[in-house]
């Protein structure tokens, strides 16, 4: 979809500073079908931005939140969604790095640029706008920018809430990109692709000629493979119980596949046998403790590194004995692939535009926004990686 800057700027002059009524997919309770209905979206306050969402997609985090798997994180009614791309409709006081008509990508792991974490090169965390599943309101006033037509609040989600034709975000959770970048593909950089590619590049720092094992071949796992391929990994092993994922895996560089159901030995023993003792890097993208342990044991003693990407429910603890770390294996967690959204995502978008990364393989379905429940079902059944919704 190509939206001209000048035409959209003209359109926005009629809505800036006013409440906008638009369509949104509202979650009213755990596991209940999302309801497409009219909602009111308030103007952005200080250091906030209101965005017209053009494309959004569904991640497993949206799925688990929609199901209400963690009772402590429940908040209804709520507008979910955190992968998207759109155009700035209006900006609040103090926003200087974006203007009406800019093409933007939202991201759940904010970057304020001033806190001790944002100033450090050692982390991509942010003390003020870091991801917080319990957060359901805006930082400025502790209130929502969404409301029902009769004025009742609708809660926010992961700093983004992209299942709406318009959304309001803190400017720390939004970045301007090149207007030549295809927005429908750039939406993938909001979460899945950035999380996987960044885990390979920023967190593990995969080296040329190295070996990699990826446990779980959803969008994040396949993005890890894409990142490892670009870095020159010589052996990329994909592990998944769904054999339909293997065909897609070949397209992003996976060289060997293992279906645990086909083995009569633990996965780590199989990997050890085909890699002379284990891989250099393993990535756990499932959120399962047994899988995490297999990923850890599949790495080589002395230097193996396991990167944890799966979302594990509380109160689960690491399935490791402290003494196992004395064998030289390491384990580290990764959020948003170690990327700092404001300072690093524009460069990643450029790499996608020039063909360094191939995003086409990740969009398996496209549907109109009002078919969002169908898109959820595709993900539940394991039939889609990313279903792109057109708003």
Automatic annotation (TrEMBL):
Domain called Alcohol dehydrogenase-like C-terminal: residue spans: 219-344
Database matches in SUPFAM superfamilies: GroES-like (SSF50129), NAD(P)-binding Rossmann-fold domains (SSF51735)
Subunit architecture: Homodimer.
GO biological process, alphabetically ordered: formaldehyde catabolic process
Gene Ontology MF term list: alcohol dehydrogenase (NAD+) activity; S-(hydroxymethyl)glutathione dehydrogenase [NAD(P)+] activity; zinc ion binding
Organism: Gossypium darwinii (Darwin's cotton)
Signal peptide positions (record): none
Name this polypeptide is given: alcohol dehydrogenase
């Amino acid at each position: 979809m190509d939206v001209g800057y000048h035409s959209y700027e003209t359109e926005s002059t009629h809505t800036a500073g006013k409440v906008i009524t638009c369509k949104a997919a509202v979650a009213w309770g755990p596991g209940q079908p999302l309801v497409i209905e009219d909602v009111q979206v308030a103007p952005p306050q200080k250091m906030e931005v209101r965005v017209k969402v053009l494309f959004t997609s569904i991640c497993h985090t949206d799925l688990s939140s929609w199901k209400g798997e963690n009772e402590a994180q429940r908040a209804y009614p709520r507008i979910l969604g955190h992968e998207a791309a759109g155009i700035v409709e209006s900006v609040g006081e103090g926003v200087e790095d974006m203007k009406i008509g800019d093409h933007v990508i939202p991201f759940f792991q904010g970057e304020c640029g001033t806190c001790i974490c944002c100033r450090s090169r050692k982390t991509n965390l942010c003390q003020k706008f870091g991801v917080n599943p319990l957060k359901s309101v805006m930082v400025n006033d502790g209130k929502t920018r969404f409301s029902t037509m009769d004025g009742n609040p609708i809660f926010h989600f992961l700093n983004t809430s992209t299942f709406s034709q318009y959304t309001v975000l803190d400017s720390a959770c939004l970045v301007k990109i090149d207007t030549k970048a295809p927005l429908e593909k750039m939406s993938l950089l909001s979460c899945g692709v950035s999380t996987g590619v960044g885990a390979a590049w920023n967190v593990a720092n995969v080296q040329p000629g190295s070996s990699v094992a990826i446990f779980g071949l959803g969008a994040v796992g396949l993005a890890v493979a894409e990142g490892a391929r670009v870095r020159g990994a010589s052996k990329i092993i994909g592990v998944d119980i769904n054999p339909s994922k293997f065909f897609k895996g070949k397209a992003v560089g996976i060289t060997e596949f293992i279906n645990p159901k086909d083995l009569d030995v633990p996965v780590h023993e199989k990997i050890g046998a085909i890699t002379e003792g284990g891989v250099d890097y393993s990535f756990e993208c499932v959120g399962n403790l047994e899988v995490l342990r297999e990923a850890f044991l599949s790495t080589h003693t002395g230097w193996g590194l396991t990167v944890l990407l799966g979302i594990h429910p509380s109160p689960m603890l690491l399935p490791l004995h402290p003494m196992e770390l004395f064998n030289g294996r390491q384990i580290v967690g990764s959020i948003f692939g170690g990327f700092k959204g404001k300072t690093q995502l524009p460069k990643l978008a450029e790499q996608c535009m020039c063909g360094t990364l191939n995003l086409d393989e990740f969009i398996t379905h496209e549907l109109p926004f009002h078919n969002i429940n169908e898109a959820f079902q595709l993900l539940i059944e394991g039939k889609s990686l990313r279903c792109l919704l057109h708003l």
